[in-house]
Each structure stands twice: as C-alpha cells, then as structure tokens.
Protein: WAPL domain-containing protein
Amino acid sequence: IVAVKEAAQKDEGVFKAPPPPPRVIKMVTIPTQPYQDIVTALKCRKEDKELYTVVQHVKHFNDVVEFGENQEFTDDIEYLLSGLKCSQPLNTRCLSLASKCAMPSFRMHLRAHGMVAMVFKTLDDAQKNQNLALCTAALMYILSRDRLNMDLDRASLDLMIRLLEMDQEPCSRQLNEKEMKKIKEKIRKLCETVHNRHLDLENITTGHLAMETLLSLTSKRAGDWFKEELRLLGGLDHIVDKVKECVEQLGENEEQDKLVASLWGAERCLRVLESVTVHNPENQGYLIAYKDSQLIISSAMALRHCEQLITRYNREDNKVCMANSNSLPHYNASSHTGKAVEDCMRAIFGVLLNLTNDN
Structure:
C-alpha cells in the first residue's frame, strides 16, 4: 500500500491536471449615438490567465516561405554581383561564377527577376583574361541549355561575339596552366549535367562554348531584335564561316561518324541563318553579298556532297540486300547518315528559299 501511494505521488508530479479555464467576462457596449449598434465582446482579465503576447498581422505560411526565398535570392545576387566586380581579384570572380551559377534553382531566379543581363554587364571585360572568359562562356552555354528564354540584350550578345573571336589557344603569359585545368574540369563536370549533344567535352574552349551558345539562339528565343543585332555585331559572319568549315570537312572525311558530325554542324548553322532571314531583306542582302556570296557557294557544295552521299549509301544498301537479306545492322548505320543528310538538305533549301525571295 505504501508503494502504491508513493507511485501515485510521483505520478502527480509528472501528470499534472490542466489548469482551470480563465474566467471570461461578457461585456456589452451600449451605443451612445442612434446610428450605432450594440457591441458584445468576451474579455479575460490578465490576472486570470498566464502571461501572453498578442501578435497582430500574422502572415500566412506560404507568404512567409515566399518571402524567405526572395530574401535568400536577394542576398545571393548581391553576393554574386559584388564578387563579379572588376575591382575584385580574378580568382574571386571565377569562383563566384562557378559556385552560384552552377545551381539550376539560382539560374531560374536570375531569369525570374531579370538579372541575366545585369550579370553579363558586370562581366563586360571578360575577354581580357582567358580564365574569366572561359567561365563567362560556360555560363552562357549553361543558360542556353536550360531551354528557356535567354533574356539577352544587345550588350550581352556583343560580349558573346567578342568571346567567340578570342584565340582558341590560351596565352601562357596571361594565366596559370594549372588553374586553367582546374577550371576546365569544373566546367566539364557542369556541362555533363545538361544536354550537351553537340559539345566536345574533351576540347572545351571559350570560342567553342560561345559558338554553341550562339547556334542555340533563334529569334523566337532571343526576340525580334536579335535578327538585326546579329548582323550589326558580326555574328552572321562567324556563322557563315562555320558553314564553310563544316562543308570543307565533308570533302575531307570518309569516316561515317565524322561525316555525320559535319552534316549536323552545317545544319545547325543553317537553321539559325534560316531563322534570321525570314521576312528580313536586310539580312538576306547581307548574306548574299558577304565574301562574294560565300554562303551560296558553300550551300551548293554541300548539296553536291549530299547527292554523293545519297548515291553511295543507296548503292551500298543494294549490294547488302543482294548478298544477304538480313541487312538490318548496315541499314541502321546508313539510315543514321541518311537522316543527317536529309536534315542538312532541308536546312540548305530553307536558307536558299529565303535568300532568293524577291532577289
């Protein structure tokens, strides 16, 4: 019995009975004016209940979360812009780009708040150093892989073309080769996380990244102003020269993989040219006159190569079908090339139709 009483006393210390509810007083306010209503309220005196704090204007949970995310982004963008200033050391500027802009959520916030152009404005002097130029070109490429609007302006496009014109081989006097390898490795890992079908991960350079970014742009993604500014800033020149380079590789390479790569390279360039020449007589006339009609000559050469490839693979398919009815492996290989030939020819016809319209 004694043990039971002691246990009961211990339980009383742990499990306390809830305190009685506070006394509530009903208060009725009689109006003093004829147009006022009677007001009834329930009130509780402070001495009848525990201490408390009244919090007014409490925000909803979703509002608090949204405010916290916006504040976090504001702090991050201020940190990024302060780290990208030209007064900062080079390593700090490169680290700021690599740390924050590698996060997809942060890039989404950059677009949502219209800060992409501001970031590139801060990096306007990027072409003065190979390390910073490579990081800037990588940021442009990653933004273009997000499959959203680039939110570029004329200054950003001008910076992209200046990076495109940089020397492919870095100058040993301007940078540390060890640091360059570290930066390239970080960029390579970052590029592996996005769609990089046309990117040569083993040969990452500033010019290569800038060209891939430029080829991913169209007037639909960048805006109608893109058609004119691309001509005025010299972007069309680089694309036409790239077409010529790809067409020349068609005549030099016999390996199927290299042929397909050259066909795809020419097709991507021609798609951009087709986009910027639709209902644009200025670009049409410029491309016709550029380097004595280099684009038209390259297009004609590309068509000849496509004709030869069509004839070659048709004959090879016939030989295989005659020798062995089970020709599925060879058919797959040739159809892969045939699809590239078809896409390239479609792009060539699109450009030539635009250039010859009313010309």
Summary: The two ends are 113 Å apart (CA to CA). The chain has two domains: 63-222, 235-324+331-358.
